[in-house]
Write the structure tokens for this entry.
Amino acid sequence: MRYKISGKQIDIGEALQSHVQTQLDDIVGKYSGRPTDANVVFSRSAHEYVCEAVVHLSTGLNVTAKAHANEIYPAFEACAEKMDKQLRRYKRRLKDHHRDRSEPVEHLGASSYILAAEDESEDTEPTTLQPIIVAEMETKIPSLSVGEAVMQMELAGAPVLVFRNESKKGLNVVYRREDGNIGWIDPRSQE
């Protein structure tokens, strides 16, 4: 597995890097046979250390975890514990997903835009109804089943996931509702 362990404006020592590699190898090895790479970023937020970890699995799924602590090692340990819990929760489905799928998850390319926030002052009228584009990026839309999409959203800790439905070949959305349930948007095809 390839590792990218870095710090945002803090130095990461060799001991911490080897500790992170050993721990992630143990955690991911228990649940997923072939992880491809891991990205771990340490940063500081006021008096706390923040650890964010993303592990890309060979099936195309990603596992994401984030944790805070007063010291850097406990921040990583809490992050690793969250990742372990996520992988344990989805262990059976991850193994079934790998067995059912002969090819890795297919991804479609798409453009992603960041729009400027509008001023909400009541005195000014908007000059135009067109939003201002702040940034444009490339993003990937995975081709998944609905169950896989829900699992991917949960593993990534995301509130919403746009995916291409493998059975219907159309774009779908799954999202976490305020009541704790999962919502699924499946537009009707106009044929």
User: Anything to note?
Assistant: The domain at 2-98 is CATH 3.30.160.100 (Double Stranded RNA Binding Domain). The first helix runs from residue 14 to 31. The first strand starts at residue 2 and ends at 7.
